């Protein structure tokens, strides 16, 4: 670890060219695409492999066609998802993660697994909170 890295081995904020905490920083938009409900779930689903639009829509339960389309466009524009259109009749379109998308999805899945593994504690905390707040 050098003086320009924090304890996780990532560069210190002062050494980065972008700062997501700055209002005008373009990284903020990408962070929103990645951490938004549909973006995170879409990246996680695509980590398993290439999927067609309707396969992806079934995998990401609850997403509308419109929201999935918007999400895929944003992730493709950010360079996280690759769209492959086959010149067949009917047209076949497959979506897969780019190398950058794969790296982001790995980190996101670690967070997802952490949250899933902690849900018993989270649910117990919610119950305690609701009981305490209801008594006020």
UniProtKB/TrEMBL annotation:
Keywords: DNA-binding, Transcription, Transcription regulation. One of its GO terms (molecular function) is DNA binding. Signal peptide: none annotated. Pfam families: HxlR. Residues 25-123 form the HTH hxlR-type domain. The keyword Cytoplasm does not apply. PROSITE patterns: HTH_HXLR (PS51118). It comes from the Bacteria. PANTHER family: HTH-TYPE TRANSCRIPTIONAL REGULATOR YODB, TRANSCRIPTIONAL REGULATOR, MARR FAMILY. This is HxlR family transcriptional regulator.
